[in-house]
Amino acid sequence: MDLGIASSTAVISGGSTGIGKAAAAALLAEGAGVVLLARTKTTLDETVAELRALGHPGPVVGIQADVTDRASVEVAARQIELEFGRVQILVIAAGHRMRRLDRQLFWDDGDWAADLDVKTVGMLRVIRALHPLLDKTGAGRIVNIGGVAGETVWEGALTHGLNNAAMHHATRYLARDLAPEGITVNAVVPGLVATEWRVGWTAAAAGKAGKTTEEFLDAYLAKLGVLLGRWAESAEVAEAVAFLASQRAGYITGTSLIVDGGITVNAL
Ligand SMILES: NC(=O)c1ccc[n+]([C@@H]2O[C@H](COP(=O)([O-])OP(=O)(O)OC[C@H]3O[C@@H](n4cnc5c(N)ncnc54)[C@H](OP(=O)(O)O)[C@@H]3O)[C@@H](O)[C@H]2O)c1
Questions:
Q1: Pocket of ligand 1 (CB under 6 A)
Q2: CA of 88 to the centre of ligand 1 (A)
Q3: For residue 56, is it within any domain?
Q4: Which domain holds residue 57?
């Protein structure tokens, strides 16, 4: 199926690793150009080189930006405007990894605020800064990467839950707000995804528990109630992103597309 986004420009916050990087690869495969935003230059450079090596025709550019810093995001937006002019697709994938497993109820105010500042407020900062560049002829697409922790109660994920629930709400709010400008706003809601960090986390947790990675993962998937019995590959989440970013999804807005192997079937 031709997604109709060849020659589009896609900006991906948090595009240097994990789901953002996989989304970049999926959009490139459809002929789009991609701009990756993230803080760490070495990772950005490596990912840009890796994505260029895939040999797709669209340009791949990495720009250092911190979504918790308004000025940094606005500088990035100006650079994007100079290099690309218009932006058709904006994917919001920047988020905090789980930092600690102690009870989040008793974290300091600053730690709570820091988590919300990246995913929730960071999403708004990026959308606000890129809004002037977003296509308003009907091709404009925003795809937020939410998470099932916003729909269910996931142990150790209080701030993740707040962030994801806020993002799912903002998706609907902004769908209404931006509809008159022809911009659709949707969310992809992953469950457990085999990102680079998650693979490392699983191996470390298995080691601590004295189990093999496979044993630990099987037990973890069963505890979460993943009906399909496996975690998602990042590319499987990215396919959903590419679809919602595409011209094929022009009549879909305000939707949260759950890509969780069935976790929420049990929990909702
Ligand atoms: N992996 C999962 O199982 C899973 C499940 C459900 C939902 N999600 C959600 O999916 C999104 C992506 O997760 P992921 O697992 O792919 O994460 P990841 O591999 O940790 O990637 C996070 C990306 O965000 C960037 N980033 C972090 N803080 C930033 C900041 N302040 N400014 C700019 N960029 C920043 C990171 O680069 P730098 O650190 O260099 O800035 C990186 O590019 C997150 O919102 C997460 O909550 C993930």
A1: 13-20, 37-40, 43, 65-68, 93-95, 97, 118-119, 145, 147, 160, 190, 192-193, 195, 197-198
A2: 22
A3: yes
A4: 9-193+232-267
**What digits encode the pLDDT tens for the residues 5-59?**
999 999 999 999 999 999 999 999 999 999 999 999 999 999 999 999 999 999 9
Task: Tell me which residue has its CA closest to atom 32 in ligand 1.
Answer: 66
Cα 218 → chain centroid: 25
Is the pLDDT at 130 greater than 90? The verdict is: yes
> Based on the structure, what is the number of domains in the chain?
1
Pocket test for ligand 1, best of 39, 118, 189 (most atoms within 8 A of CB): 39
Express each pLDDT in 174-225 by its tens digit.
Answer: 999 999 999 999 999 999 999 999 999 999 999 999 999 999 999 999 999 9
Domain with residue 13: its CATH number is 3.40.50.720
Q: What is the pLDDT at residue 268?
A: 54
Measured in angstroms, how far is the CA atom of residue 93 from the centroid of ligand 1? 6
Ligand 1 atom 6 nearest Cα: 147
